[in-house]
Amino acid sequence: MLDIKLIREDPERVKKAILERDLSAEVADVDGALEFDAQRRAILVKVEELKHERNKASETIVALKKDGGDTTAITDKMREISDRIKAMDLEVREIDDRLREVMLDIPNIPDASVPVGPDEESNIEVRRFGEPPTFTFKPKPHWDIGEPLGILDFERGAKIAAARFTLLKGAGALLERALINLMLDMHTREHGYTEVFPPILANEASFTGTGQLPKFKEDMYSCNDGLLLVPTAEVPVTNIHRDEILSGDDLTIKYVAYTPCFRREAGSYGKDVRGIIRQHQFNKVEMVKFAHPDVSFEELESLTANAEEVLKRLEIHYRVVALSTGDLGFSAAKCYDLEVWLPGANEFKEISSCSCFTDFQARRANIRFKPKGGGKPQFVHTLNGSGLAIGRTMAAVLENYQLDDGRVVVPKALQPYMNGMTLIE
Hints:
By secondary structure, the protein is α+β, with helices and mostly antiparallel strands. The chain folds into two domains: 4-104, Helix Hairpins (Orthogonal Bundle), CATH 1.10.287.40; 120-424, 2-Layer Sandwich (BirA Bifunctional Protein, domain 2), CATH 3.30.930.10. Helices cover 41% and strands 20% of the residues. It contains twelve helices and 17 strands. The chain has an eight-stranded mixed beta sheet. It has a three-stranded mixed beta sheet with strand order 7-13-14. A two-stranded antiparallel ribbon has the order 2-3. It is elongated and about 105 Å long. The two termini are 51 Å apart.
């Protein structure tokens, strides 16, 4: 959520940022926020005037009582003023609720370093690692590798649940677990993150805090008791410190979590329908940071580097892309996508998004810190990034390490996590 002071002082900047995200977007929410804010401030001015008048009346009553005078009229007036103040306080609360509803629908302002453009075609490649593998045969997509090996069972996954659910078997299940353990060990032992295992169900306040609600409810799986299945560990982990004031001495706080994730993938019909790229249930390792505002973009660079290290360790070709304003997520101020090379598809596929949200999520979730030198608590800056999406990493391993006879070489970094297995056959 943006600071209302920013909208009040520079509404055209906010409108421009919204249009840079989406040329067809409505900017009426900005005007609506300004209108509610003006109403609220006008009422508060009147309330202060009435309180001042009530205080004067109270002083008059004291003086009259001291002199033995009649206080009936002034007491009635004081009661009337108090009733008007109560009514206006109620009106302010109602306006506050309506203002918050409008503010929750306004996206974050992209950082000045974000490329301006309408869609992913305006994204800018920042760097690459490695080279695509060469084959003496036409490389297969991962579904044509995993099914003959007996490690990916799409038919039984759909039978158990529905389309876009997959049953992993044998070495496939072991590979999934090995990837999770490799990532958790790397991020905790080498990158300084604290591992947590959060609930995979969260309440609406948690989803609102990170920006998934109210806009993206159609993408969520919900339960009858008001809880929702998390689409990413970003939701529960960011909300660890909701409504808290942290110590500035503790920043930057870094968490990493493995969770199953659940997404309806509303609006994605026809996209990546085969394989394990776009599933309704998938596993992911997520990194979350709570940083001082002065260093949050530096922390974004290190967060991205931490995610990259997984692919470097697996020796898989990838590139880093800076997202344009039109491709940027609702809550993000800046984002890098890691895109891994899939030889079977002959294309790069996003495997991690690393984002800095500035104080956008912290305002929604009320996460603040006490500055080291003292002073009024400030909102922290939050960041997160996949480190990595497990299913997509598995697909990348199968496609990049496939052999002409259908077997798959196990990357050296994963062999200790797979009981020394060197080949999946």
